[in-house]
Recover the amino acids of this structure.
């Protein structure tokens, strides 16, 4: 039987490929983005408590009320934005689901969707599977900022959606007020909607603040903001996140969500609701990760790589184009095998797999693991 693939150009994601290689080689895995340490034991106790209390059957489709309420409180506290937890907040099975459901809710056959290139790897498949056409606008090098003139030029009568990501994976670039204002100007008199991937919202450095698209009145009315508890509470394997959007958009979003997963694990939701009653548990995250970024960057200075410290996220990019012509994918594989440190080649995030000779390292690891990795990286032969 021959199957005509709906995603012929797609293979297994780089995160699976590199994590497997790291495990096969016994390498330190700084490739796939996940913390190398566990979450707060109190969160585990809460999950245990709610599981044993018998909250193990289907929960509400839109998410447990107490958690939706907490998310709304967090948005008020951090961004000064009032959200109605009933009609504007939905809990889902990870930001990946939020992104997919938002695209599926609004993109129809032949609609154009602007993607800022490079982009997280799930965006383009979500667009294509829903009959949309990705229109790629390259980010500006070397800082991966947005050239808004290029975005403006890419907009046509068919543009339905713009997908954005701040803090940005893989570069860590954090949007400025000017980015928000300019996007708002571009979309305000049109039917264009926005999906904003803000999974690293609580991880920004050097005093920078994450500017959620919720904070801009024009964007707030047009945007699906997608978030993830995995990043914020060190539980990436739980696959639990949320989508914030105005009532009309949320209504359409939930029509998709109810047939994708219907709902997400109730005891996790009750536990997170209790855990979030103390805002320091998410407000302290930038300081927590800044120490790791600084430690990692300090060590990188003693390696042949060149880099600019990441503005946000838990990734650090490094360049090696001044040293070698080696393909970034090959180099990432070779380093995993030869020095036992795994990274992600940045080319995988580009629509045309362009090779800028950049690798991405995840520094969400214990200090000792980072120091061990740096010791090995110092010895690389490029
Ligand atoms: N968006 C970005 C930019 C990411 O880096 C990730 C991966 N962690 C996701 C979305 C997916 O988040 P989740 O694991 O909650 O589905
Ligand atoms: N977001 C993670 C990263 O960028 C990977 C998530 C996944 O493996 N699906 O590394």
């Amino acid at each position: 039987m021959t199957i005509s693939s709906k995603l012929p150009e797609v293979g297994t994601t780089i995160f699976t490929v590199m994590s497997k290689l790291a495990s096969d080689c016994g390498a330190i895995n700084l490739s796939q983005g996940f913390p190398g340490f566990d979450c707060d034991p109190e969160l585990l106790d809460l999950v245990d408590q709610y599981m044993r209390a018998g909250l193990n059957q289907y929960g509400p489709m839109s998410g447990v009320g107490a958690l939706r309420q907490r998310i709304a409180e967090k948005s008020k506290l951090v961004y000064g934005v009032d959200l109605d937890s009933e009609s504007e907040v939905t809990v889902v099975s990870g930001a990946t689901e939020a992104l997919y459901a938002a695209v599926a809710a609004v993109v129809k056959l032949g609609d154009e969707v602007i993607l800022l290139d490079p982009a997280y790897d799930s965006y383009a498949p979500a667009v294509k599977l829903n009959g949309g056409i990705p229109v790629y606008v390259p980010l500006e090098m070397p800082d991966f900022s947005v050239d808004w003139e290029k975005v403006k030029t890419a907009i046509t009568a068919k543009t339905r959606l713009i997908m954005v990501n701040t803090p940005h994976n893989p570069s860590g670039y954090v949007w400025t007020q000017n980015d928000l204002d300019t996007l708002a100007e571009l979309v305000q008199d049109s039917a264009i909607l926005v999906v904003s991937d803000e999974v690293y919202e609580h991880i920004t450095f050097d005093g920078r603040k994450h500017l959620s698209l919720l904070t801009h009145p024009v964007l707030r009315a047009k945007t699906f903001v997608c978030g993830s508890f995995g990043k914020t509470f060190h539980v990436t394997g739980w696959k639990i996140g949320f989508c914030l959007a105005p009532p009309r958009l949320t209504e359409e979003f939930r029509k998709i969500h109810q047939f994708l997963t219907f709902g997400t694990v109730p005891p996790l939701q009750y536990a997170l609701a209790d855990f979030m009653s103390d805002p320091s548990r998410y407000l302290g995250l930038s300081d927590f990760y800044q120490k790791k970024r600084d430690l990692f960057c300090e060590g990188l200075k003693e390696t042949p790589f060149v880099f600019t410290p990441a503005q946000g996220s838990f990734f650090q990019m490094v360049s090696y184009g001044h040293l070698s012509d080696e393909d970034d994918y090959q180099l990432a594989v070779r380093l995993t095998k030869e020095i036992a440190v795994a990274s992600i080649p940045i080319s995988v995030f580009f629509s045309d797999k362009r090779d800028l000779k950049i690798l991405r390292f995840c520094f969400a690891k214990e200090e000792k693991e980072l120091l061990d990795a740096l010791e090995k990286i110092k010895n690389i032969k490029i």
Summary: The CA atoms of residues 301 and 307 lie 9 Å apart. The chain has a mean pLDDT of 97. The chain is about 40% helix and 15% strand. The first strand starts at residue 28 and ends at 29.
